[in-house]
Amino acid sequence: MLKIAICDDEKYYRSRVHALVQEYLKAHRLGASINLFSSGKDFLSERDNLVKYDIVFLDINMEEVDGIQTAQKMRSYQSGTCIVLVTAFINYALEGYKVGAVRYIMKDALDVQMPECMDAILKKMQLQKVTFSFLEGEKTLYTDNLIYIESRKHKCIFFYMEKEMTTYQMYGKLDEMEEELSSYGFLRIHKSFLVNLKHVKRISNYQAVLDCGEVLSVPRLKFAKVREAFVEYKGVM
Fold it and tell me: What whole-number percentage of the chain has pLDDT above 70?
């Protein structure tokens, strides 16, 4: 699931960007959590915000702490967040370049520019798609939205996040799914579970805690290896 923040001190534009992003996500069957902030100061008040989001829309002209200052603070923490600068003026290209903004879009052209902006971001993020033939029919899924797969009575149950958790089923072996999805950051933590490491919050007490709230067991014999793989993927202990 994508994590998106929208930061603008004008309620109208904050709501407008929100609506257009939701419209795009719905059209592309993408799930996301979206948080709204009324100022750069509000956004920066929580340190986690500097690195936790995949995409942040920043109004350039905000009082106290403007969008450029907010973006500079994010980049000082080596944030890999895709920053989009939103402005009513056209003379901010250089500032956008300095903070590594993916795009800057004009407030009077949001309807036109938002789809192209989101297309560019998804391309940059290299969201991958996989297609499977489920009992429900053939489906193309974004790997980022595939939380985990469970093997149950000769079936593979796919837990997939759109607006809410959805499940798809197919006959098959989890070994085959592991081989096909390992290059996308999926890890076999149990004979019955193949999980997307992107959605693992922590590995502890012989359990994998996922960001959707699910808690999956990790066998004692596999625990050290699973934790090592998780730490390597996250890059932090």
Answer: 92
